[in-house]
């Protein structure tokens, strides 16, 4: 594909993602995508056969594949549980701030209204979590009763529910702190090494979680 065509295709994808995240699948038309992108409807249909095709491309681009995160959590020098915790903060941030990720999440939630099968967005998350938990178990960092595959499946589903409900009830600004609360409860049940804390490896700056012991809004 020529560079000009790639640029056009990308601009259409990003415009569609913004609209899907804001208005949902049913509330977005091809004409809306054309207007937001500054391209003609003909250009939309040249690159994507249908609105369903655009929705599928949005989900595949980020939410179902996480291409930007795969390589970052393969560093064997970092304990696997710490890598798992850090990965959760990066994914939570993407779900709160990245338009393509947010659009993918909303399209998945609205999949019954889309006349096209969407890929399972949790398969890669679960596989990555299973791998990290298996590494942790081999290193002696998990309790003996913890089985990597079913534990990873449970963690991924609980994590996604936590992020979704927290944003809906409190807003995206609180997700990092609620995620820290969740890991404070979860890490001991996994039998994680005592020196690992939820804020180890978490992002700095605005998304840095506040350790529970340092929060002023909590009763002592």
UniProtKB/TrEMBL annotation:
<protein>
    <submittedName>
        <fullName>ScbR family autoregulator-binding transcription factor</fullName>
    </submittedName>
</protein>
<feature type="DNA-binding region" description="H-T-H motif">
    <location>
        <begin position="29"/>
        <end position="48"/>
    </location>
</feature>
<feature type="domain" description="HTH tetR-type">
    <location>
        <begin position="6"/>
        <end position="66"/>
    </location>
</feature>
<dbReference type="InterPro" id="IPR036271">
    <property type="entry name" value="Tet_transcr_reg_TetR-rel_C_sf"/>
</dbReference>
<dbReference type="InterPro" id="IPR054126">
    <property type="entry name" value="CprB_TetR_C"/>
</dbReference>
<dbReference type="InterPro" id="IPR001647">
    <property type="entry name" value="HTH_TetR"/>
</dbReference>
<dbReference type="InterPro" id="IPR047923">
    <property type="entry name" value="ArpA-like"/>
</dbReference>
<dbReference type="InterPro" id="IPR050109">
    <property type="entry name" value="HTH-type_TetR-like_transc_reg"/>
</dbReference>
<keyword id="KW-0805">Transcription regulation</keyword>
<dbReference type="Pfam" id="PF00440">
    <property type="entry name" value="TetR_N"/>
</dbReference>
<keyword id="KW-0238">DNA-binding</keyword>
<dbReference type="InterPro" id="IPR009057">
    <property type="entry name" value="Homeodomain-like_sf"/>
</dbReference>
<dbReference type="Pfam" id="PF21935">
    <property type="entry name" value="TetR_C_45"/>
</dbReference>
<keyword id="KW-0804">Transcription</keyword>
């Amino acid at each position: 594909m020529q560079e000009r065509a790639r640029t056009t295709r990308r601009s259409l994808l990003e415009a569609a993602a913004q609209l899907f995240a804001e208005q949902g699948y049913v509330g977005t038309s091809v004409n809306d995508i054309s207007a937001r992108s500054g391209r003609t409807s003909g250009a939309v249909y040249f690159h994507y056969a249908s609105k369903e095709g655009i929705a599928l491309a949005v989900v595949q681009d980020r939410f179902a594949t996480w291409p930007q995160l795969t390589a970052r959590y393969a560093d064997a020098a970092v304990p696997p549980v710490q890598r798992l915790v850090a990965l959760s903060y990066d994914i939570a941030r993407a779900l709160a701030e990245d338009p393509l990720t947010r659009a993918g999440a909303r399209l998945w939630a609205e999949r019954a209204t889309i006349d096209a099968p969407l890929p399972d967005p949790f398969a890669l998350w679960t596989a990555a979590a299973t791998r990290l938990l298996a590494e942790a178990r081999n290193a002696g960092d998990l309790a003996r009763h913890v089985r990597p595959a079913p534990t990873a499946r449970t963690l991924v589903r609980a994590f996604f529910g936590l992020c979704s409900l927290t944003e809906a009830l409190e807003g995206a600004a609180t997700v990092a702190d609620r995620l820290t609360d969740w890991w404070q409860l979860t890490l001991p049940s996994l039998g994680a090494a005592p020196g690992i804390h939820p804020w180890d490896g978490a992002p700095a700056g605005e998304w840095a979680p506040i350790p529970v012991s340092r929060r002023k809004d909590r009763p002592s």
